[in-house]
Amino acid sequence: MSARILVVDDIPANARLLEARLTAEYFDVITAANGAEALEACARSECDLILLDVMMPDMDGFEVCRRLKSNPATHFIPVVMVTALDSPADRVRGLEAGADDFLTKPVSDVVLIARVRSLTRLKMMTDELRMRAITSYEIGMQQPERDAVAETGKGGRILLVDDRPSSYERLVPLLTTEHHVDLETRPEDALFQAAEGNYDLLIVSLGLEQYDGLRLCSQARSLDRTRHVPIVAIAEADSNARLLRGLEIGVNDYLMRPVDKNELLARVRTQIRRRRYTEQLRDNVQHSFEMAVTDALTGLHNRRYLESHLKTLSEQASARGKPLAVMMLDIDFFKSINDTYGHDAGDDVLREFAMRIRRSIRGIDLACRFGGEEFVVVMPETNVQVASMVAERLRGAVASEPFAIEKGARQIDVTISIGLSTLERKGEPIADVLKRADTALYRAKHDGRNRVVAAAA
Ligand code: GH3
Ligand code: MG
């Protein structure tokens, strides 16, 4: 899908010029002639990025940007200010309004396309995360947009990679006014430091004496631990080609030397704000994924997870000609525990039982709460003899030691019954294996409980 760019300019000729250049690069372009139109188009979520003229009658670009960025529904759309103003003070004003970047008129084609590509790529990635996180909003988790609008971007953890004292002696105190800064003067150690340090931002000087700063940026982009950490490059004047290369590699933003104090702080805050927002989205996605596959009471996997994963495990076992064992476990007379001591006591027993299961099995075994007081353990590469031993050990681990309930005030005896089965032939449907385990469990109950029964082959 090609990204859609909104070009906002009160002078039609300017808008048409940008439109033509972007269309030539296969972007989809829409235009707006003033701030109000632009806000409407954004509210209808019609675009992935905005190129915003600063000087417009009625509402200027700063105001449009400020409104977009303070609205949770539009704040994640990247805004690039297109301006004839090019003093650091103007740039800072735009950054304070929340702009993601600047292009100075007349706009160079290469820079235009590089910036638009890099920002739309970032937007697409964030959209994907937002979509996945929607499920987690539905189950009542915090909405990151709300926090993002209030986020100051201060108090970040920054790693500055710079080996020239004349440069870092100025930058470190400056950044320290708002953030925690670690300085790395040995570029060859910087990657390790970046991966270990849990940073919100890397600032890399491209004018290192002994090392190619771009190499470091590219390595940071390919390493798992640093892939999502934003990078701001500090470039020497007249190093446009290297800068463009940097943007292609995945550098998020840059400043030219001599570095303007306020612009540096503003750009750093923007990156840190964005970083915190995407991290929160990522956490939400991760969390909702875990909720979807985990049983809340015991922390074991749930039935949904078992059913999707069991198929994979059995196919793997069939393909490799390895055995696979399944045990189904059920607490004996659990209903009477509930009836005698209350539902909370029942829950305590379930939690403790889950813990004892975990302690009795290997890391590669899969333990799930199948429903109610019924549990399933799947053991890859395990034959019926070994599985019987494990089941017997588990039965013993329950029966031999009473369970604490009522916050430890009372101890009760608990027993379980276990039915066991194994994959009998290649390609056998896993449902059949589960069914045999269930039948074996029924026999264990029928034969007097507190015992293990293996299904007949
Ligand atoms: P058997 O030895 O034949 O397995 O008898 P049982 O009492 O264990 O079996 P039954 O199926 O009659 O009762 C299971 C009970 O488990 C009924 C249900 O209320 C209770 N139960 C199911 N889920 C939970 C839960 O999450 N917490 C608690 N406390 N009880 C639960
Ligand atoms: Mg039971």
From TrEMBL:
Name of the protein in question: diguanylate cyclase
Domain (GGDEF): residue spans on this chain: 322-457
Catalytic activity from the UniProt record: 2 GTP = 3',3'-c-di-GMP + 2 diphosphate
Taxonomic lineage from the root: Bacteria, Pseudomonadati, Pseudomonadota, Alphaproteobacteria, Hyphomicrobiales
Start and end residues of each Response regulatory domain: 4-120, 157-272
Gene3D superfamilies associated with the record: 3.30.70.270, 3.40.50.2300
Cellular component annotations (GO), alphabetically ordered: plasma membrane
Modified residues (4-aspartylphosphate): D53
Molecular function GO terms recorded: diguanylate cyclase activity
Plastid in keyword set: no
Keyword hit for Cell wall biogenesis/degradation: no
GO biological process per UniProt: cell adhesion involved in single-species biofilm formation; negative regulation of bacterial-type flagellum-dependent cell motility; phosphorelay signal transduction system
Entry keywords, A to Z: Phosphoprotein
